[in-house]
From TrEMBL:
Provenance organism: Phyllotreta striolata (Striped flea beetle)
Listed GO biological process terms: negative regulation of proteolysis
Keywords: Protease inhibitor, Serine protease inhibitor, Signal
Signal peptide interval: 1-20
A GO CC term attached to the entry: extracellular space
Family: Belongs to the serpin family.
Keyword check for Nucleotidyltransferase: no
Protein name (record): Serpin domain-containing protein
PANTHER family attached to this UniProt entry: SERINE PROTEASE INHIBITOR 28DC, SERINE PROTEASE INHIBITOR, SERPIN
Pfam families, per the entry: Serpin (PF00079)
This protein's record includes keyword Lipid biosynthesis: no
Domain Serpin, first and last residues per copy: 80-545
């Protein structure tokens, strides 16, 4: 194993619960002949149009709105990039939580510098138009607010739960910059937990797995089998999603049906459990993109699962469609949907997978993060080497160990002061002489809540600039941290519940030539989007729904 490895564990638990629909007026048994679509009739459901307000012109957009739009677009583009890069390696189903991955990478970005910082901003879609090196904190603030908004929205909707959790597990006594710790806590509500990788790696792995199990409601018990004893930092990001459909699928009508893995004209089929539904749903068909899209809203309509099927879909057609579609195309399809009467067959699925994202991210240009010689996480830790000396940095400790409590002193305007470091440990105050104004000003050390003069949101970016100014100094040393891998574990369950109620549920047959027939029995993609922010939470490309039976 390598020394000073960072392992990033990103976990998704979307658990979709389809509740029982029961109406005593319906007393006839449902039947699905193979040669026709016969669907149960059910009351129409109101659903707001998916189209939201048009994006603001940059002329009328605040910087905060601009950042939020870039974040949403960046997460959407990241979905497509990861999907394409991963599918070049496999023909299996691909399911992942883009926002969860982005949150884990953002924690790394918060502590990165140099080439690693540049590569991460590029893959997250933040490299243009932001002055990212000087204003990256705006991005972290925006992403943190977005996550809290999604959590808050879910919290007021009955039957929906979305929660995020991040943790930084640190080797005991390994120096982590106070700036990084406090910024991670303030921006992402991240936990910083001390563990002993070196002398007791098994116990450390148990602690990490227990944390993951707790944050994922017991759905994922073991994210790591073992942890190398030379691990210094492990970053974990967990996400739990549980929601009920706004228009529940019918109980008692799920049947075994064919799924055509190479298209409906092919004889290559598997048998899957198909759920049935009918009613008013958002739908759109586009002849230019040669695809149709159906929205399956969750309760409250705050989040929607969009199912996209290319015309004449099969494995090859879906791959080609995904290779050329853009994030703007996805927004266009979703925002163009109109409420239509739809008759739906959709596969019941349970998907569990562990994805190692190192080769995917490397293919997307994130290379230095995984290279011990190039990775630069100097804002996360000063490492165990010599400290960086500068007149603007107050560091009263010795010069042989990196100091995790590095403190920068800035004027009220955010400019670096030309200060002489006179530190009084008893009072925890540094006195700086501002030669511009010819005044002596006392500043509290960073971390003190009372009387602090430091503008907290500027500190990380200014620390980065300071380190870069000293990059040629003989005392400069990269902390030597790098990522061994990015592990993303997914558990997804799309099913109906309430088997006791299903035994008493009967529906009336309804046959019509009107409306839309949306039969998901060929390869398809789906994405779950938070409607207000237009942020993609989850992505999936499905070639063989699981579980299934191969026909012989």
């Amino acid at each position: 194993m390598y020394k000073n490895a960072i392992i990033i564990a990103s976990i998704l638990i979307p658990l979709t619960v389809c509740q029982t629909y029961n109406n005593d007026a319906f007393k006839r048994q449902i039947y699905f002949p193979d040669d026709a679509m016969v669907m149960p009739k059910r009351p129409s459901a109101n659903r707001f149009p998916a189209a939201a307000a048009a994006p603001l012109s940059s002329q009328y957009m605040s910087y905060e709105q601009f950042v939020n739009q870039l974040l949403s677009q960046g997460i959407g583009n990241l979905s497509l990039k990861i999907n394409k890069a991963y599918q070049d390696q496999t023909d299996d189903n691909v399911v992942f939580a883009t926002l969860n991955i982005a949150a884990a990478l953002a924690l790394v970005l918060l502590g990165s510098n140099g080439k690693t910082f540049q590569e991460l901003t590029t893959v997250l879609g933040l490299a243009t138009g932001l002055d990212i090196e000087n204003r990256s904190v705006k991005v972290h603030e925006g992403l943190g607010k977005m996550i809290r908004k999604i959590e808050t929205t879910a919290g007021v909707i009955i039957g929906q739960q979305v929660s995020f959790a991040d943790a930084v597990f640190v080797q005991n006594n390994y120096p982590i910059r106070r700036l990084y710790k406090e910024s991670a806590e303030a921006l992402y509500n991240s936990e910083v937990v001390n563990v002993d990788f070196q002398s007791n790696p098994d116990k450390a792995a148990q602690l990490i797995n227990a944390w993951v199990a707790d944050r994922t409601k017991g759905k994922i018990m073991d994210i790591v089998d073992d942890v190398p004893s030379d691990t210094k930092v492990l970053i974990a990001s967990a996400m739990y999603f549980k929601a009920e459909w706004e228009n529940p699928f019918m109980e008692g009508v799920t049947t075994r049906r064919n799924f055509y893995i190479d298209g409906r004209k092919s004889k290559a089929t598997i048998e899957v459990d198909m759920m049935a539904n009918a009613g008013e749903f958002p739908y759109f068909k586009d002849p230019n993109l040669k695809a149709e899209i159906l929205g399956l809203p969750y309760k409250g309509n705050a989040t929607v699962m969009y199912v996209v099927m290319p015309f004449n879909s099969n494995k090859r057609v879906l791959k080609e469609f995904e290779a050329h579609i853009t994030q703007k195309d996805l927004d266009y399809l979703a925002d163009s949907t109109q409420t239509s009467h739809c008759q739906i067959l959709f596969p019941k699925m349970k998907i569990e997978s562990t994805i190692h994202l190192k080769p995917v991210l490397t293919k997307l240009g994130v290379t230095s993060l995984f290279d011990p010689k190039q990775a630069n996480l100097g804002l996360l830790s000063p490492g165990m080497g010599p400290i960086i000396k500068n007149n603007a940095e107050i560091n009263p400790l010795g010069s042989f160990q990196g100091n995790p409590n590095d403190v920068l002193i800035f004027s009220r305007t955010g400019e670096t002061l030309n200060c002489s470091a006179i530190f009084d440990p008893a009072k925890n105050v540094s006195t700086c002489h501002d030669t511009v104004n010819n005044k002596t000003v006392a500043y509290k050390r960073f971390g003190e809540k009372v009387g602090r003069r430091i503008v907290k949101r500027d500190t990380v970016d200014m620390l980065r600039n300071l380190i870069n100014q000293q990059s040629t100094d003989n005392n400069y040393q990269n902390p030597g941290l790098y990522a061994e891998d990015v592990i993303h574990k997914v558990y997804m369950d799309i099913t109906e519940t309430g088997t006791e109620a299903a035994a008493a549920t009967f529906v009336t047959l309804y046959r019509t030539v009107r409306g839309v027939t949306f039969r998901v029995d060929v390869p398809f993609l789906f994405f779950i989007r938070h409607e207000e922010t237009k942020t993609i939470l989850f992505w999936g490309s499905i070639y063989k729904p699981t579980p299934n039976n191969v026909k012989v």
